[in-house]
Specification:
Length: 190
């Protein structure tokens, strides 16, 4: 007879005393619960006595102040104008981060892979200060971040797919592929 087909001899669980047949060799406890309880008991006995015996201190009768738990919803309703003012001030002082956050949010909605904003910011700051498509200088112009391959066409919101462009080129390109939007005089740096 095959020794692997024979039923395992039954044994008693050292934690609860129930007879059981182990499915795997080396099984000591009848269930995971018994094993966890045994481990906790062993761990409890290894603790020093001062931690093991928790003594409760007698409660002194101190008058409790009527403190409410901090409620964010209530705070926002009371300080709405101040919160908006601070948020607007932050947006005005961090235009690049705001722009990247808006892009990242739109991308997350469309479930595209995104790079961290610091990686994108580093890539864009290293690029030239001229439009990727037409080559015009962007020193005194509010430039746009453009995706070379549009997100709607399967492009990623990643540093290697993002370039600086002038507003007119970005808005004319819209969601067309780079080869579709190339006109005379534009750069082809793919």
């Amino acid at each position: 007879m095959n020794p692997f087909c024979q039923p395992a001899p039954s044994q008693a669980c050292p934690q609860c005393g129930v007879e059981f047949s182990p499915l795997y060799p080396g099984t000591v406890y009848c269930s995971k619960r018994c094993g966890t309880n045994a481990y906790q008991k062993c761990r409890y006995h290894r603790l020093p006595k001062r931690k093991r015996n928790k003594t409760t201190k007698p409660k002194t009768a101190k008058p409790k102040a009527d403190k409410k738990l901090f409620n964010w919803r209530e705070y926002h309703t009371l300080h709405r104008a101040e919160i908006r003012r601070n948020a607007k001030k932050w947006r005005e002082s961090h235009p690049m981060q705001v722009r990247l956050q808006k892009h990242a949010r739109r991308i997350k909605i469309q479930a595209a892979k995104t790079d961290s904003s610091s990686a994108i910011l580093g890539h864009i700051s290293k690029s030239k200060n001229s439009c990727y498509w037409c080559g015009t200088s962007l020193k005194n112009v509010q430039w746009h971040i453009d995706h070379i391959v549009p997100i709607i066409r399967g492009g990623l919101h990643a540093a290697h797919n993002m370039v600086k462009s002038c507003p007119s080129c970005n808005l004319k390109k819209n969601d067309s592929m780079p080869n579709d939007s190339i006109r005379s005089g534009q750069l082809l740096l793919l």
